[in-house]
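Standup notes
- DV: blocked on the single-chain target, sequence here:
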Amino acid sequence: MRNGSSTKSKVAIVGLGAIGTEVAKALDAGIDGLELAAVSAANIEKHRPWLDKLAKMPATLPIEGLADAADIVIECAPSKLVRSIVAPVVSRGKTAIVLSVGALLENEDLIALAKAHGGQIVVPTGALIGLDAMTAAAVGTIHSVRMVTRKPVAGLLGAPHLVEHKIDIEGITEPLKIFEGSAREAAKGFPANLNVAVALSLAGIGADRTRVEIWADPTVTRNTHHIEVDSDSARFSMGIENIPSENPKTGRITALSFISGLRKLRAPLRIGT
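- DV (later): unblocked, structure below
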């Protein structure tokens, strides 16, 4: 798996939604040093039409078979499956790339497990910019981090926080603030929406000190995030407007971030930390 190695690292993908499908197709088209060895999905037959068109058919395996079949396992599955996917991988000293970052807050011992066995959990940049700046600032002292997220109504429907608090957003005609609190609370209340907030918190001052505001906004068509950071090395802000993928809860740039990260593994020139 080192640069310069002539052997290809085997990659497996769990979950073949909008992101997993795009990453699988990119691997099949060719990423230096990597090959798509296996895929896993709840209903693999649903994906046969496009899987059959791949240049090389990957093995279709249950989750428990992936850690032995691949060097790198990419999780694009429901968050409740994160532990069953990641634990066997890092226990074997291998790499797990995680989409459902929020689930790491409920399974923080996975980090210690990876350390004990020489494995690694990778969180891609995903729908956020500025993680390099955040991790650099965290080497010093970060005083505060605040993120304001605005999403189209369709991308928030069904979120546990809305159901629990009986917040109806389907008929709104103006922006409505539906949450304010910590990144940890945001991840619990919006598990399919706020992986970006958890990634930000893990890179910076943690899930309890990172403050999050969420707005349901019928006036926007893109998932927008605005972040303000104050530290002893720099004060900076960043904003991004992500075009939703086929899944309105997820930005299209998320899949591209996974692909970019995979390309960096063997790239002769790597930009960014």
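- Follow-up: Residues 1-5 have pLDDT under 50 and may be disordered.
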